[in-house]
Amino acid sequence: MSETPKRVRVTADLPVRRPSPSTRGIALPGSPVDEADAVYARALMRSQLRLALGTVAGFVLVVVALTLTIALIPEIGRVLVWGLPLSWLLQAYAFYPIILVFAVLYVRTAARNERRYRALRDRE
What we know:
Largest sheet: 2 strands, antiparallel
Protein name: Heavy metal transporter
Shape: elongated
Number of helices: 4
Structural class: mainly alpha
Strand order of the largest sheet: 1-2
Keywords: Membrane, Transmembrane, Transmembrane helix
Distance between the termini: 78 Å
Organism: Microbacterium sp. A8/3-1
Strand content: under 5%
Order of helices and strands: HHEEHH
C-alpha cells in the first residue's frame, strides 16, 4: 500500500505595493491628481445638486398650485369638455406637460453646467 502525498498549498509572493496618490473620487486610480480639477469638479457637483433641488422644489410648487386650483375652484368641475368635467381632464392630463417641461429645463441646464465645467477645465 502506497501512501498518498500530502497536499501542499503553493502561493506566489505578493508584489510590492507603492502608495498611490489620493484621488478624492474624481479621477481614476493611478491617474495624476490636479488640485484645480478637484476644485472644478466639486463646484460642478454643488451646481448640479442646487439645480436638482431647485427643479424638484419648483415642480412640487407647480403641482401643488395646480392641485389647489382644481380643489378650491368648484367652477372648474362644472365646465364640460367633450362631455367630461374640466377638473377630471386637468387631473388626468395636465401633469404630463408639467413633467415634460421641468425635465427639459433640467436637462438643458445640467448640460450647460457641464459645458461650462469643461470650458474651465480645458482652458488651463
